[in-house]
Amino acid sequence: MARGRFISFEGIDGAGKSTQHAWLVNYLKAQGRQVVATREPGGTPLGEKLRALLLSDAMHIETEALLMFAARREHLVQVIEPALARGDWVVCDRFVDASFAYQGGGRGLDWNKLETLAAWVLGSTRPDLTLIFDAPVAIAQERLHAATAKPDRFEREKAEFFERVRAAYLRIAHENPQRVRLIDATRSRDVINKELEQIITTI
Ligand code: ADP
Ligand code: TYD
Fold first, then answer.
1. pLDDT at residue 1 greater than cutoff 90
2. For 133-185, how does the pLDDT look when each residue is reduced to its tens digit (9 = 90+)?
3. Ligand whose nearest atom lies closest to the CA of 118
4. Residues lining ligand 1, Cβ inside 6 A
5. In contact, 135 and 89? CB cutoff 8 Å
6. Buried b / exposed e across 98-117, counting CB within 10 Å, b at 16+?
7. N or C, which terminus of the chain has less Cβ within 10 Å?
8. What are phi and psi of 97, to 5 degrees?
């Protein structure tokens, strides 16, 4: 059985990432593929409990990073690795790059500590393709505020925080041209759908 494909979706809150995640999952299923649609933090019963804590409770930035990676370890072992081994496609709304962008870029946590955690928690597993949805912070915040009645602990952060997160994502895209595709998220949903259709033919 050929190993499946692993695709992650990234971007600042409000960029339109979850909208495109849902679209791609449906598109791949319509093509007859076995697809596991999942997300981080979360993706397992324990991970979803950790997600609830992470999105609501104030905590030290290293605690935040460690809980993100604890949830990720569970997700990898229980869901992602078995799915890839079965030959399924795993389409994940956020993965490890979010820790570099939010905990590293946004919160200022040492990048080397995140590298150490990533090496430990992920082993050799990395997405085959990462789509980073990029938009100016003002546009993403406008979309977010129109869509969200009760913003969570991250969504309540100031624009400067999201500027740092965005800059970290752009750095990740620049440093990983083989794996990462930067998507201009300011365009219409339809135009982005068409681009994703084309991109997934390349993996
Ligand atoms: P994210 O997952 O990146 O936080 P969402 O996919 O939840 O963002 O989208 C945030 C809001 O923006 C939603 O109301 C969604 O309908 C809207 N939206 C998503 N994509 C677009 C787009 N291309 N153009 C305009 N609005 C969009
Ligand atoms: P997300 O599911 O995108 O939120 P929503 O459902 O509200 O669109 O992600 C929840 C938040 O968690 C998001 O603000 C980014 C943050 N996050 C990190 O800070 N580090 C991480 O490693 C991950 C996976 C998410």
1. no
2. 999 999 999 999 999 999 999 999 999 999 999 999 999 999 999 999 999 99
3. 2
4. 11, 13-19, 143-144, 146-147, 188-189, 192
5. no
6. bbbbbbbbbbebeeeebeeb
7. N
8. -60, -30
Q: What share of the chain is helix, strand, coil (3-state, %, to 5)?
A: 55, 15, 30
Q: Whose CA is nearest to atom 2 of ligand 1?
A: 18
Residues in the chain: 203
Amino acid present at 131: L
Q: What ligand has the least distance to the C-alpha of 151?
A: 2
β partners of residue 7? 91, 129
CB atoms within 10 A of CB 187: 13
DSSP 8-state class, residue 188: -
